[in-house]
Design a protein that fits this description.
globular, 5 helices
Length: about 300
């Protein structure tokens, strides 16, 4: 359950590019204005894939509110993301004295809603890379966040008429593509040195192994958990994993300078040095006034608290 007075936020770098490097991309400040126009027109909505076997409405993502704000001379794009899920269970409240339960039933075409505040610095770290702080809400993970941003940036790109030359020498439409990377100011190695390692997993996401006794079946994914307390063993485990065709490593550890929740990271060990990989930092925000699970408008106090973390 979400705490009304405490929220966790995640810190990313938002990277922006087009399908071809030579395609000139407008500055994000300009793109932000076009995004805000779509938000005000209630066009910033992405319907997700329906649940398998579920005949009701599909869940959706929406950017409900947005505006440019200035704090300490720096300009930000503030966005309020919302997730609506018609399959989610109805909220239920229990009375402290009588123990009586009160259920709030969804009405037709309604979905259980949660919202997440987000701030994106309009001052790039370098062209095409911007700092992002987003409220950590179940149902709005990195993939969904990237999907809704990608959907909006694609729609905005069409208004700019961005194009590229394909392999056949023809001009074809292209668009701005977003991605989210771990906040580049914190490396896994630095956090692990002051923390306690609690879990290491090696994952083979492209397994071609078969079951000898069941030739019709194929192993689609292999995963093993390794019990190790010393972070200094990670390089050796990485080498061992690469030699046996494992391509991912998942880590869980506790950082005494963190939020009190475990830190987590997933690393492509075929391409990256685990120690040098940036991970998604999480921080805690404490509010003086309660914040509901879902709100219609951006809360200024929440935005200020988030920006003060940078």
């Amino acid at each position: 359950m979400l705490d009304a007075y405490e929220r966790f936020v995640l810190m990313y770098d938002l990277t922006l590019r087009t399908a071809r490097v030579e395609t000139e991309m407008p500055a994000f400040r300009e793109v932000a204005d076009a995004m805000l126009s779509r938000i005000r027109a209630k066009q910033a909505t992405l319907v997700l894939r329906p649940y398998s076997g579920y005949r009701g409405e599909a869940p959706w993502l929406r950017i409900k509110d947005g505006k440019k704000i200035v704090r300490d001379g720096e300009e930000y794009l503030a966005l309020l993301f919302s997730v609506g899920d018609p399959r989610a269970a109805n909220p239920v409240f229990e009375h402290a004295d009588t123990a009586v339960l009160r259920e709030i039933e969804k009405e037709e075409r309604e979905g259980k809603a949660v919202s997440a505040h987000c701030v994106i610095s309009l001052e790039p770290v370098k062209f095409g890379r911007h700092r992002v702080i987003v409220e950590d809400i179940r149902g709005l993970g990195k993939t969904r966040l990237r999907d809704i941003l990608g959907s909006e940036l694609k729609a905005v790109s069409e208004t700019y008429g961005l194009s590229r030359t394909n392999n056949a020498g023809e001009e074809t439409a292209t668009y701005i593509i977003p991605d989210l990377e771990g906040y580049a100011s914190e490396k896994i190695e630095a956090s692990l040195k002051r923390g306690t390692l609690s879990g290491v997993w090696l994952v083979d996401t492209n397994s071609k192994a078969v079951l000898d006794e069941v030739p019709e079946a194929k192993i689609a994914r292999r995963e093993i958990k390794i019990d190790v307390a010393a972070a200094s063993m990670i390089p050796k485990i990485t080498v061992w994993g690469r030699e046996r065709n494992f391509d991912k490593m998942r880590l869980v550890w506790n950082d005494p300078e963190g939020t009190g929740r475990p830190e987590r990271a997933s690393v492509d060990i075929t391409q990256q040095d685990v120690a040098e990989t940036s991970f998604v930092k999480q921080r805690k925000v404490t509010l003086e006034k309660p914040l509901a699970e879902a709100v219609e408008q951006l809360r200024p106090d929440m935005l200020t608290k988030m920006i003060n973390l940078k």
